[in-house]
Specification:
Distance between the termini of chain A: 92 Å
Oligomer: homodimer
Structural class of chain A: alpha/beta
Number of strands of chain A: 21
Number of helices of chain A: 24
Largest interface: A-B, 130 and 129 residues
Helix content of chain A: 40-55%
Strand order of the largest sheet of chain A: 10-9-11-12-14-13-19
Largest sheet of chain A: 7 strands, mixed
Chain lengths: 665, 665
């Protein structure tokens, strides 16, 4: 029993440390940590192939703590092993017990929940909003497969957490893509925050559900080191055999919340961090548990070596021009017609970028024919990097985050409306520093016939929140020139769409591209340059500046003729990016007497508010009138039908402009 | 075989109509409709107890078309039966075939996807974003249970759609709450938009998954009328037996996409609406199918009568005052201390409102101890109306929508961060006209120690989008005085929190209440009035108006002393509601020389942009500087730690105010 007692001794040491550091912080979830003591000890000290001196090594096995609140047990192990921490690799230093005791402090890298971006590179993604880890792990495994890396990804999932539907989306995804490198481990400690975990998430029912989803399920005592070891070895065996017909392995570990200390067992101790005498009592109880079970021996555990990293031939060429791509991919007709829907430009662009860069991946949720990504999926030169995620948006967003953690550049597309479903996953990815490119098609009311359940209208307001974030260094100084926390891009034509996709790919950070269902006429060409944060003055004016994007640029162009007849000299600026460069815009507005009319095909809080925020800072007496979707849309046979219905028709623009300029009907 | 041939004849008639009306619209999903022809015929003509003349009757069985894109088959049946349509009950009229042929037209009630609010009262909720129907049905069944109604709810779910994790959250919820009145029917037609449905969603695997989740699963040929009838009868039998130990019944129907017309079968016909000759061909094929299978007889089907509605004693009293509630519920200590966290005020308020109104329901996702709803859950007088939803936010939001459809007033709480997970469900509920009260606790960076994965920061920007929506009548005229599409409420103290909860309950529409983790001092009392759309001038000023809400009001109050010493006369307005009444605010700002400083503890696009939007319309030369969260937060031991980190500390406010007023350090 020397292995069992050695692990037990280590587990008790780590659990004690979890109590000490949460006690010092005054908050945390040490009873959850206690349920994971043995699992973490076997994984991090004996089974996983990794290097404490390089915890983010691409070839190393990965640990995904989906139940992020249990992170102190991992911090305890990392402090013990001297795992490197710090925001910049150049300034990494080995973690100490003293570091662990700074848990949750404002100047500490040891945050309340896992977060690589805050200086803890052992982790691949921020967790803490539950149910996402298995999906992120799937993305990491996909990236590893593409790179010929043999690494495995271990995911610790709480039983209460497994109520999140995303866990089951991820399980299906693992089976669809045969990702046996991922090892889901369910930590069944039976207690959630409020009460006992539902019977629907009992170990017995989880086993049935996993078997139904096509897993070989191993049920173990999560406090038995040898049972843990044997189960992990079985996972390794099945992974190595790489038999596509075989089922993947999942582990259901029966554990005890508050294991080892009677005063922390059972219900009512979730999120409880004992201090003072209560803490002393817990530590003494753990000491006793160790003695009673003979857990004295320490040492004797050894982290195995990583598999060698395979060389990987990468393609990284300059992408072709858009007009070349149209010809190369059989879309010359668009050149003749002089128009194309930006969602189709997305499809063409995705192929072109995929040919140029082997790190690019395209993901979609069973709407590839609508988003344009079907063009990528149908191209044999690139479609080994197409990831069909089926109708499960939450999982897709987290898989994309995992691909990013694995060094890939994921372009994930679905209807803008359906992407809303993955917002929490996107927010966690942004927090993690993921390099994700999100694409919402069918944005705005121009979708027409299918109606509001399919229209992306609430998206701009949400994504704009992140555009206000800036990058700061550890000392709290703004990192100049490091870009915004997010770029929201609404191209008005196909050329601009592709040019922006190139910029998205070149920049290391999150972007959201909004594409349109209807065709729009070409406004630009291959030679036009567009940037993240840029804008384009299309028409100079003297009386009124219309600021618009996407389809609304074309609506503005149509309104202009009539306004011209009325003697109103209107300028038009294509504000395709949020945020945007502000000084030039103020100049254009000043040229127009300070009169601005913003037009956007979404709910309020997007382009219009970005403009008002800007001009109010300046205080120069601008007037901004806004047109946006103020009425819940419905179906209409054409884009014009619906635009007129919601008040964004050409006549509405003319009327509004006249009103702004004080011209009576 | 007379029943079978009668149903088959009806199914063919409805399928033909689906083709005709989608052909007329030029878009739609008739091949999906065809797979449902027999199921809809048996349900709507022979099994469901309902009244075409009163399609939203509370006692009638309900049909939830979760796969909303298949709605033309239901429209076909409703046109045949003359089901009442129209936005106002007073102006309902029976639907005709001519109405059906206006499918998707801008002035038609026959929208592209199901939507009760657009004039189709047969449905309870807008569907079309997939995977939500089963959860809404669960909410309807909960409401019916509370009202002693015997109705059943039939939910048609696509096989591809069943990849959505929410479907499985809902399945677990049905089992947890023993809601056997809900009958999930999986329509396994094997084809999704892009390709064949994943094996993970095959009929065989769905059966295993449903059995694992604790259902009695009946596998039927979805085109066999008698098999459909027998399965539905078995569901009725199990429902009527109401044996808590028995499993609920789920039906897995094997169907054919494009059934009955060879030219529409198999892959590649999703979302295809044949016109002209292609349409003629399909109709002829269906005619042949009818002849070949002997489906001539029409008539002979009869809708059964509804169960009688039981009388239901309702409580609808005036709620007690907050200070009375504090005493009644053992929280007098707050009165002595003069402070209370708004999340706890929420808990107290929920009990008080629950005692006053028997239609109020409280829902939570396993964080009741944190959100405050544990106080309601622990009160025996009301807790039969507490709904523990476990860790599954998507399902909770849709269950709340279902409760609203059942005439209840749901207050659904979780961390503001986790509520993000249910945004698409909330958007669909808003579209449906649901009367939902959403509560996001732990809003802002003041949460402190747990870190950004638990902080509600992106919420305001998203919800604000809906505040710009207004109600219009059928003719497109603004309905004056009908309120905004959404109210976002961030109370600064416990009294205000409770007063706003009373307003939320009294108003028939969606609201989002943001509560705080830390305690805040009392600023108000029982006598203070707050309204949806209101604000409160706390301090009159002459030099600078600070507009803030929630915790930031207290930060502003702290900053004011120092600013006063510097000779800056600062006014403070508590902008607790978005939208807010604008004229008075402009007056206050004018009194302060047009200088405004907004402070909000969330990402950009909230209160600050609401103010800039307003003043820019006025054009009166205001200057607005904004303070919001510009840096991704991290953990810190106190609220102050994190506020200083993100630039919302008291010193930051003083510095910003000085800068605005041109006072150098």
């Amino acid at each position: 029993m020397s292995f069992d007692s050695t692990v037990q001794a280590k587990a008790i040491e780590l659990i004690k440390c979890s109590y000490e550091i949460t006690g010092a912080a005054g908050s945390g979830h040490p009873s959850s940590c206690a349920s994971l003591g043995h699992l973490i000890s076997v994984l991090m000290y004996q089974h996983m192939r990794w290097e404490p001196s390089n915890p983010s090594h691409p070839a190393s096995d990965r640990l995904m703590l989906s139940e992020g609140h249990a992170v102190p047990i991992v911090y305890a192990a990392c402090a013990d092993k001297g795992v490197m921490i710090g925001e910049d690799k150049e300034r990494w230093k080995p973690m100490t017990k003293a570091d662990a005791l700074t848990l949750r402090q404002i100047d500490s890298r040891i945050d309340g929940h896992p977060n690589p971006k805050l200086g803890f590179p052992f982790f691949d993604a921020a967790t803490g909003s539950l149910g996402q880890g298995l999906s992120v792990a799937a993305g990491i495994a996909l990236a590893a497969k593409a790179d010929g890396l043999d690494k495995r990804v271990f995911v610790l999932i709480g039983d209460g957490e497994s109520r999140e539907g995303q866990v089951w989306e991820a399980a299906d995804f693992l089976r669809d893509h045969d990702l046996k490198a991922v090892c889901p481990i369910f930590n069944c400690n039976q207690f959630a925050q409020s009460e006992e975990v539902s019977k629907q998430q009992s170990a017995e029912v989880l086993v049935k559900k996993l078997e139904a989803a096509g897993f070989e399920v191993l049920v173990i005592d999560g406090h038995s080191p040898s049972e843990i070891r044997d189960a992990l070895n079985r996972h390794a065996e099945v992974h190595e055999a790489s038999d596509a017909a075989a089922n993947g392995v999942a582990i259901v570990a029966k554990t005890e919340k508050g294991w080892g200390a009677a005063s922390m067992k059972g219900n009512g101790h979730h999120g409880q961090a004992p201090k003072g005498e209560a803490l002393e009592k817990v530590l003494a109880e753990l000491e006793e548990t160790g003695k009673a079970t003979g857990a004295y021996a320490l040492g004797g555990l050894k982290i195995p070596a990583m598999s060698p990293r395979k060389s990987n031939q990468k393609i990284d060429d300059a992408p072709m021009n858009f007009s070349v791509a149209l010809k190369a991919f059989g879309k010359e007709s668009a050149l003749e017609q002089g128009k194309m829907a930006t969602r189709n430009a997305y499809g063409v662009g995705l192929r072109a970028l995929g040919h140029a860069k082997s790190d690019l991946f395209a993901l979609d949720c069973d709407v590839r024919g609508s988003t344009g990504s079907a063009m990528f999926a149908g191209d044999e030169k690139v479609n080994d990097r197409f990831v069909e995620c089926r109708i499960a948006e939450q999982n897709m967003m987290s898989v994309a985050a995992g691909l990013s953690a694995g060094g890939k550049i994921p372009f994930a597309s679905t209807f803008g409306k359906f992407a809303v479903r993955g917002y929490d996953q996107i927010e966690m990815a942004i927090m993690s520093g993921a390099n994700m490119k999100l694409v919402g098609s069918h944005s705005g009311a121009t979708l027409g016939a299918d109606g509001p359940s399919q229209m992306g209208l609430s998206d701009v307001g949400w994504f704009r929140g992140f555009t206000g974030l800036r990058n700061y260094d550890v000392e709290g100084k703004l990192k100049a020139g490091s870009g915004a926390g997010m770029y929201v891009l609404t191209p008005s034509d196909a050329y601009q769409c592709y040019a922006l996709m190139r910029e998205m790919m070149a920049w290391d950070g999150p972007c959201y591209l909004r594409t349109l269902r209807p065709e729009t006429e070409f406004l630009y060409g291959d030679e036009d340059k567009f940037t993240l944060g840029g804008h384009e003055l299309l028409i100079e004016g003297k009386d009124l500046l219309i600021a618009a994007n996407g389809y609304m640029v074309h609506q503005a162009n149509k309104a202009i003729e009539e306004l011209d007849d009325l003697g109103i000299d209107v300028g038009v600026v294509d504000l395709y990016s949020l945020p945007f460069e502000s000084e030039a815009l103020l100049d254009y507005a000043n040229d127009c007497g300070g009169n601005i009319l913003t037009i956007e095909d979404n709910y309020c809080g997007g382009l219009g508010s970005a403009v008002t925020d800007l001009v109010c800072q300046d205080g120069g007496g601008f007037t901004v009138n806004q047109m946006y979707v103020k009425r819940m849309p419905k179906s209409g046979l054409s884009a014009d039908n619906v635009l007129n219905y919601v008040g964004l028709g050409v006549d509405d623009i003319v009327r509004e402009a006249k009103e702004v300029m004080g011209i009576e009907d």
